[in-house]
Amino acid sequence: MRLFALRPLLLLSLAATLGSTAACTDDNGNPVLFSIEDDKALGEQVAAQTDSTYRAQNKLLERSTAANQRAYTLLDGVVNKVLNSGELQYRNDFPWDVKIIKDDAIQNAFATPGGHIYVFSGLIKFLESEDQLAGVLGHEIAHADRRHTSRQLQQQYGISLLLSLVVGDNPGQLVSLAANLGQLKFSREFEQEADQYSVIYLNKTTYACDGAAGFFIKSEAQGTGNVPEFLSTHPNPGSRIEAIQTKATELNCRQRTTSNDNFNELKRIL
């Protein structure tokens, strides 16, 4: 019922945006056809499908389950520090939540449009510090906040198809998109920007702001074949380490010490 009521409004939005593309640009002058409300509506649909998929596989750690509440308290503590850094453009516009997928074999994380973040337990267990976890989460939060995810999906699927998902006209395609979101290939520009904003976000926290670089360093030490899908796209890890550390040195936020007690507890719980 809710989606049916939204349909005419979304179709009007599509007509308006297609008729005024030049006026719909991001901070860098790149065209963005989706409105913020479209981002939120698409993200809600994709997140619901993602939840359903992993719930059916008994891999989604439900927040409502008492046994999972401590894990979410610990993870939320990290996420909220990044979200409340004062540097997010859409902090108060997107719903922002994070969910854990219990799969130790997968070292991955991804974001839907509108700020729904998913983290695999295998990634958390791979990381060595809370700084690294904050850096990786910052990277994914940046993809949502800088609207990389919706822009990349527009390029890959086309805006008409995406809006059909929002209004519920294409459930089969929604299943496919949700299943493949973790393997979405971002452009070089988007990956570089997400890396840079991870540093910018962490600069306003207590974390060492080059945490994402620490993740890359460990990945390279174990061989490039071990770099998870969500950070394996170009540019190569070596150049990304350098760029992250250069930005962190510029902001003078590399030499910070963070207790790993909560992080280690989270890993034990998972």
Annotate the secondary structure layout.
Blueprint: H1 2-19, H2 36-56, H3 69-83, E1 97-101, E2 109-111, E3 116-120, H4 121-126, H5 130-145, H6 148-157, H7 159-166, H8 171-180, H9 188-203, H10 211-221, H11 237-251, H12 261-269
Parallel strand pairs: 1-3
Antiparallel strand pairs: 2-3
Helix pairs in contact: 1-7, 2-7, 2-8, 3-5, 3-12, 5-9, 5-10, 6-7, 9-11, 10-11
Domain Peptidase M48: 78-246
Keywords: Hydrolase, Metal-binding, Metalloprotease, Protease, Signal, Zinc
GO molecular function, one term: metalloendopeptidase activity
Please count the helical segments.
12
Mean pLDDT: 85
Largest sheet: 3 strands, mixed
Number of domains: 1
End-to-end separation in angstroms reads 38 Å
Net shape: globular
Strand content: under 5%
Pfam families: Peptidase_M48
Protein name: M48 family metalloprotease
Signal peptide: 1-22
Organism: Hymenobacter telluris
Task: Report on the architecture of this protein.
The protein is built from twelve helices and three strands, in the order αααβββααααααααα. With 270 residues, the protein is mostly helical. Helix 2 (36-56) crosses helix 7 and helix 3 (69-83) crosses helix 5.
